[in-house]
Amino acid sequence: MSSFERRALALVGISNEFHALSLRLRVAASQLPLVLSVLVTLFLVAAVSPAAFSEDAFQLGLLLLAVTTAAAFAVPWDRLFVPAYWVIPLVDFSAIGFLYTGGRNTVTGLTLLCVFPVFWLAWSGVATHLGALLSFAGTLLVVWTPAISSGVESVRDLASPLLIPFIMLAIFNTVTIVERDTTSQHKRLLEAEKGLQDSLQESRMRTQLLNGVLETVDVGVTALAADGRILLMNSRQRTNYALAGLAGTADSDDPDDRALLFGLDQVTPLTLAQRPTQRAMREESFSDVIIWVGTGKDQRALAVCARALRDNDTFAGTVLAYSDVTDVVNALNAKEDFVSSVSHELRTPLTSIIGYLDLAVDDAEEQNLQGPVRTGLLVAQRNAERLLTLVSDLLTTASGVMNLRKSNEDLAELVRTAVDSADPRAEAADIQLSSEIPGALPVRVDSGRILQVLDNLLSNAIKYSPDGGAVTVRAWAEPDSVVLEVTDDGMGMSPEDQLEVFTKFFRTGQVKKAAIPGVGLGLVITKSIVEAHGGRITFESELHAGTTFRVELLG
After folding, report:
1. Alpha-carbon torsion 414, 416, 421, 427, what sign?
2. Residues whose CB falls within 8 Å of the CB of residue 406, separated by 6 or more in sequence, listed in order
3. What's the pLDDT tens digit per position in 344-357?
4. Is 293 helix (H, G, I), strand (E, B) or coil?
5. pLDDT at 555 over 90
6. CA distances from 113 to 49, 108, 311 (A)
């Protein structure tokens, strides 16, 4: 739509985009430029030669233009077949021809009015070839009308104005090309707009879904940008922040360290570097970090998880989730307190029992007693010592405190001692116990605790190889550490059981089915001892194929 047509539409109060108008209004809008141009022509004629108004041809042209203009506004073109409106530009050619015949001596360039019906036929986009022919023929009729009405005197009278029809034909082709390109662009824009609308609608739906999920789950969620700004926070997390004494801002924005965040003991404040938000902003990812928030009776335990957000390997922010685990932590603490209390109560009488049993056994040996009395005393002594060991293990796991007495030791000698101690059990279970160790492996450790680690690992390897087989102990030195491995070809563990290996009181389904004795504390204690030495313990296992435990200690 041309700027001239836009201004013409504005004059009559129509401001919508051309393509959005009904067909009747588009036809009327296309007629307006010609009407306005003819009005300008009438002023010129009135000023230059009013006598032209008395010409029959000029009057007929004005009459035809008035009729076509009225038809353009009045006829419901939407209800007619598509090219029906072509009657308007075709009649316009006739009207222009009569105006040109009656006023060509008064106003120069009346034939240029043909450009309006030519434009009209071109932008319609219907029957392009026919439109080109009608544009050429209509313009030719206009320029030949004076000659035909006054009589053709020579071929020159018909040939001299032929340039104008060819120019109009060229204009038609140009407008057609522009119209096709504009239509194509318009379609692409409509498709792009529809795509944007669909994307916007989908985005709104996703936003509503996300907000619904975040407000439904009983977990506090915070999303932070790379610069620490809060991008998202649900109502549950706002409650957590209020409990911590923060007014809805991330703890990274609290330089005065006013957030009420504490460690596992519930009284030691977390340093700024220890806070989950600070760790997450250092691009750390972690799970199940327990912190205590708030003070007094409202203090709550939260398990915090964080995952970094990345955009093309660039840190883009982080998401933190805070789960309230107060009841779980309190239940675990209550269980630990119960186990500790019971163990303490059992330890004193057991110590007395073992002491008296030792005296009884010594007395039986002095009196050279044989038979069921001495055997019964030995069985009672062995089981009492086993029960005392179990009680000691319970106390160790309940307290979580590992006291070490380190000294310079030879790990190779400790391994040989543990193997010699376990050899009778291995022979009884038809297991070949072997070791591959160098002559000496100097380390600084608590020898008693390391012997406990070796005993636990060897005991498990023997117990969990019920069908016999082989157990191998290896030890060697590496540049910064010494390494110890215990390998068996016993029952092994499933991937699911491997996840719970270092969980207190956990025993695999295979072990329970085989009725192998134990309470599930040996590996827990072993891990505590190794970590107290600054080392680490790992393992590899395959169901029905065996297990290898690997301990690394600093040299």
Report:
1. positive
2. 444, 445, 446, 533
3. 666 677 777 777 77
4. strand
5. no
6. 19, 11, 61
